[in-house]
Amino acid sequence: EPGGSGAPPHPDARPSPPIRQPAARTTMAAAPPENITSVPDRLDNGVTPPPLHPMAHNELFKGSKIQHEALRQHLLKEGKITEDDVCRLCKEAMGVFRQEANIVRLEGNLNIVGDIHGQYYDLMKVFEIGGKIEEGPYLFLG
C-alpha cells in the first residue's frame, strides 16, 4: 500500500495527479539589430547616471536638522548615503518611534497603505498619488 501505513485510504481522499515531466526548453538568442555594432551604440544616453559619491553629511544635516527634501531628491537619483549617516537616521527614527503611542486614534479621511516591502520608489509613488505627508494623514500597515 502507498504510504506503508496499512490503513485503507480515506473515503474522501482523491488520487494524486500524475507527475508531469517538464517540457524540454529551447532557447534562441535574438539577433541584434543590424545598426547596433558595439556596446556604446546600445547605451541610452538619455539616462542620467546615479551620483558617484554618497551624499555629503553637511548636505543631509544642517546642524541637527535633517534635510528631508534634499535626501528625497538624492535617493530618487539612486544616490547613496554613508553608513554613519544611515545609522544616525535610524537612531533619530527610533527616538521618534519611542515617543509615539502604541495605539493611535485616527479620525477623518486618511490614506491607508499596505506593506511596500521597503521599496523606496513605491513609497514615492504613494506620496505622488496620495499627496505629501504634510497634506494628510497616512496609515502604513507594514
- Quick check: average pLDDT? 81
The residue ranges in which pLDDT falls below 50 over 5 or more consecutive positions are none
Q: What integer value in Å does the Rg equal?
A: 27 Å
Q: What is the overall shape?
A: extended
Summarize the main sheet: 2 strands, antiparallel
Oligomer: single chain
Number of strands: 4
| Content of β-strand | 5-15%
In spatial order, strands of the major sheet run: 1-2
What class, by secondary structure content?
Answer: mainly alpha
Kindly list the characteristics that best describe this protein.
142 residues, two-stranded antiparallel sheet, 5 helices, extended
Can you characterise this structure?
- The chain is mainly α and 142 residues long.
- The chain is 32% helix and 7% strand.
- A two-stranded antiparallel ribbon has the order 1-2. It has a two-stranded parallel ribbon with strand order 3-4.
Short description:
The protein has helices at about 40, 55-60, 70-75, 85-100, 120-130, and strands spanning about 60, 65, 110-115, 140. The protein is mainly α and about 140 residues long. The strands form 2 sheets. It has a two-stranded antiparallel sheet with strand order 1-2.
List the helices and strands and how they pair.
Elements: H1 39-42, H2 57-60, E1 61-62, E2 65-66, H3 68-76, H4 83-99, E3 111-113, H5 120-130, E4 138-140
Parallel strand pairs: 3-4
Antiparallel strand pairs: 1-2
